[in-house]
Amino acid sequence: MISLDQMLLWFELYSLQERYISVLDNDQLEAWPDLFTADGHYEIVPKENADADLPMGLIYCNSQGMMRDRIISTREANLYEPQTYRHMVSGLVITPIDPTTARMHASYAVIRTNLEGDSIIYQAGRYEDQAVNTPDGWRYRSKRAIYDTLRVPTLLAIPV
Question: One Pfam family of this protein, by short name (predicted)?
Fold first, then answer.
């Protein structure tokens, strides 16, 4: 039987995941770092590297500051075709570590639409996250997007 505390934890962490997706899908990238702790980690790695315990990935940020810098460079320095993301996330599993820390994992697919309105499945994979309860609510201490897709067809400018 599921307790009220377990249901509340699931709701709060599911809400964190939904805010994350909403920020990315609605081009509110400046709010993205606020979903992490100040020393939060974010990375995108291919499945082959994750399986071999190799650290190399496409994106690695080890603080909110690096995440903010990435967004500024995405907005002001990088040249890439404007695009829209739509995330599909399923299979969220939450494993409490202690009252203020939990592990989460879920499957994801990102559909990318270009200016001409052509949509493709851009990337599919899984998230492996750790979240902590802060005075401001639940935040990611780490978020790892491990993609199954064999290759990334265009510049990976926006977090997935």
Answer: SnoaL_4
Residue 82 half-sphere exposure toward CB, CA atoms < 13 A? 6
Mean pLDDT of the chain: 93
pTM, full prediction? 0.92
Q: Which fold has domain 4-147?
A: Nuclear Transport Factor 2; Chain: A, (3.10.450)
104 vs 17: CA distance, rounded Å: 10
- The domain spans of the chain are 4-147
Arithmetic mean of pLDDT, 41-65 = 93
